[in-house]
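Appendix B, Record 12. Input sequence as logged:
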Amino acid sequence: MLLVAGLWHLRNMGKVSELYRQRAEEGRIKPDPAQQSVLPELDRVLADMEAAPAPAATKPRSAWRALLGVGNPAPEPAPPVKGLYLWGGVGRGKSMLMDLMADAAPDQSSRRVHFHEFMQEIQAGLEQARKRGDQDAVRPVAMEVARTTRLLCFDEMQITDIADAMIVGRLFQVLFEQGVVIVTTSNRVPEDLYKHGLNRQLFLPFIDLIRQRMQVVCLDSEVDHRQGRQGGGQVWFSPANADARASMDAIWSELTQGSEVQPLELTVKGRKVEIPAFAGRIGRAGFWDLCGKPLGPADYLALAQAVDVLLIDGIPRLSMTNYNEAKRFVTLIDALYEAEVRLIASAADEPEQLYNEGEGSFEFERTASRLREMQDATWGAA
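Logged structural output:
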């Protein structure tokens, strides 16, 4: 499966640290000592992959020569290239560094994908493998990924779904066996993944696998680079009262400019996902339209691909009383953020105050930070 080593010279590997320096000089990145401290690890992954030898071709031995122990012995396997697990608080620049990593790697064999999206693809592949009657459904799906990918860059590894938790260990095991190198970001140290999850003891070997095959590095910065950015026109209205509604109506009228408005219905794995008002890739829905129904990552990914701008009315305070809806809202914002959808919303409070206590509040810190970043006037322009 491994590609010929010469492929890795096509773009001269484009060291991540060099890309970082260039973009800092261009004013596209604000240099941060904590970010700079992890650049050598990102460079190390690419350098190790470049140095890793291509599989040696061996001439098959006859049965007699094999029995006598002569001929071409199997070559010693090269030590595996260690990937990287980069974790730290929200807004510290992990996703930006992941983008640099993907830009520095050769296009022919690298892929950068959000973890939610990737796991949806895997689950779809598993469904097909089970229909074929494959006893080990994970292996053929993982082999197909490995066939075209040597470097897999995940953003935002989170494991909260038991279905993902039960297959991710076997999935990564096969990918590693096939020489796939994985680099991922996360808000949590590996030991906190799937924390308090159902049957978590079955998940623990995956944590050991991460420690064995990936270098775990903390991006320890005190600066949240998503805060303090210059905002443009107001796109977040709180509290969600009559004034907020009037402002949202005015923006909707300005954006649609008299276009015909009608509902948009998407079909995802047999489920119906509806945006009540839609015109020219601009959608509008209430919080309960999107989060009050049993929708999941695949539904929100499809929604994010269908719109360039989304207006959400009436985001309430979130807590244990509406925990399921809050989880869906987090997944929705992840999908919108990854697709760079322009978000305009009315809510009960500012993002940081929507969900600040109880189970789920830790995970919501990242969502609040993303909601704040998405208010910037240049959001999605790049």
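The longest strand covers residues 271-279.
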